[in-house]
Amino acid sequence: MTRARAWMRRLGSLAAAAAASGAAAQQSPAVPGDSLRLGALVQQALAADPRHAQLDLYARQADLRLRTIAAERLPSFRGEGEAQYQSDVVHIPIELPSGQRIPSPTRDTYDVHVGVEESLFDPSRAPRAAVER
Fold first, then answer.
1. How many Cβ atoms are within 10 Å of 96's Cβ, its own excluded?
2. What is the pLDDT of residues 28-76, one digit of tens each?
3. What stretches of 28-107 show up as alpha helix (H) in DSSP?
């Protein structure tokens, strides 16, 4: 981001110099056939320079990284689920002395997990955000 700020300063100082020279050129008597003005040329050059569009992209990138760093504070949720169907299960054909039969297990099983993670302390968060600003 510092590179983008340096370009922004350079372009700003160039535009200010062009505006000052344009104002000085307007105060001096112009040659009747002269159609070129330094201030207008600099403004057109700045508008046509593709690096000027990059500055906006750099600023948007830094903003997105700052939002990502801020979102790291929030908890993250995770969920998993699994269902199984067994084609054959073990059954024991034994009868207890009281006359009860041992029940056989069902053929389907279900397993569900839910997890939550939250960062309590991240010493790198503030320095990373400072770099982006």
1. 8
2. 555 556 677 888 889 888 888 888 888 888 999 999 999 999 998 899 9
3. 38-48, 50-71
